[in-house]
Design goal:
Order of helices and strands: EHEEHEHEHHHEHEHEEHEEEHEH
Mean pLDDT: 87
Structural class: alpha/beta
Strand content: 25-35%
Low-confidence stretches: none
Shape: globular
Number of helices: 11
Radius of gyration: 25 Å
Length: 326
């Protein structure tokens, strides 16, 4: 049985609306009008144990709303979902002790005057974690998240990157089987992002947890996920492998050529010219024609350097948003 099973999940909000002006503002105190906003429209998918999947979409697509429903924060207006055999919005104790949701914008909650170590001890009490299991988890998290320098510091004194590490530790100290990560690397510097990606990958391997993450950084997706779910305007547009998505929406290679003498070269004869910067030219070439194009370039042009790369993942995802996926 799938760990996460979502069937035709809907979420509609009632948003108050009114015309502009003071009279309309006063009138809305006595008579309010509402407009329905469909944040999520009948999406269905399932996740198996140990899967790490990316849940992608533009701002306002319905990603965070879906994660909130699956973690039990919101009650849907239609459809059904089972996570670890539980209905999430019933918020049963046995369910909450097996899942965690971490938001990059708000990695920590609760009092900020306590130290990180005290906050972790509080989590131990809330989730009734046996001492031996807690100590084992804390030792692992200390090493994987480089927590040692943070344990004796107050939560309010932590930077954003440090808060994210501490928030992850607090969410994982009771070893949840399902982890919902909402923008886990947002706002972090390069070093913190690298550490976060390494930790998520390592935790998934060691624990076998099922992870569903959202991110606007395609490097997160490329390094962590083999499966991608694309949501746009509340509707699931794609569910499949990242490799297949790239092959479908970017059936070409980028050939970068540095020519010793580019005078008189008709670059358009070799492919679509994407960029020209001095002696360096970037061409878009179909995958089938890549080998023959390279042969022609080496034969007809004085090439001093040549490289072939896949198009950026950002290009693939953006095209999926704009054109859809066949």
């Amino acid at each position: 049985m799938a760990v996460v099973e979502v069937r035709h999940l809907d979420m509609t909000f009632q948003a108050p609306v009114r015309p502009e002006g003071l009279r309309a503002a006063v009138g809305s105190l006595f008579h309010r009008e509402y407009r329905e906003i469909s944040a999520v429209k009948g999406i269905s998918f399932s996740l198996e144990a140990g899967e790490v999947a990316a849940f992608l979409g533009p701002n306002g697509a319905g990603k965070t709303t879906t994660l909130k429903m699956l973690s039990g924060i919101l009650h849907p207006t239609g459809g059904s979902a089972l996570v670890l055999g539980h209905v999430p919005w019933r918020r049963e104790t046995g369910y909450l002790r097996q899942i965690a949701m971490v938001r990059g914008s708000r990695p920590l909650s609760g009092p900020t005057e306590v130290t990180v170590h005290d906050a972790l001890r509080f989590q131990q009490l809330v989730y009734d974690v046996p001492k031996a299991k807690f100590d084992h988890s804390l030792r692992e998290l200390r090493e994987m998240l480089e927590l040692e320098p943070l344990l004796d510091r107050q939560v309010r004194a932590l930077s954003l990157g440090e808060r994210m590490r501490a928030g992850l530790a607090m969410s994982l100290v009771y070893r949840p089987k399902v982890l919902f990560l909402d923008e886990p690397t947002v706002g972090l510097d390069v070093s913190a992002v690298t550490l976060m990606r390494q930790f998520i990958a390592g935790y998934a391997r060691q624990s076998g947890a099922t992870i569903l993450l959202t991110s606007h950084y395609m490097a997160d997706v490329d390094s962590l996920c083999e499966r991608v779910l694309l949501i746009d305007k509340g509707t699931l547009r794609y569910d499949g492998s990242l490799a297949n998505l790239s092959a479908t929406l970017a059936p070409f290679k980028l050939v970068e050529v540095d020519a010793a003498d580019s005078a008189g070269v008709e670059w358009a004869a070799f492919g679509d010219v994407v960029e020209v910067e001095g002696s360096r030219v970037r061409l878009r070439v179909t995958k089938d024609a890549t080998a023959s194009t390279i042969t022609r370039l080496l034969r007809d042009v004085q090439v001093s350097d040549l490289s072939v790369v896949d198009p950026p993942l950002e290009h693939v995802i953006d095209r999926a948003y704009r054109e859809g996926v066949a």
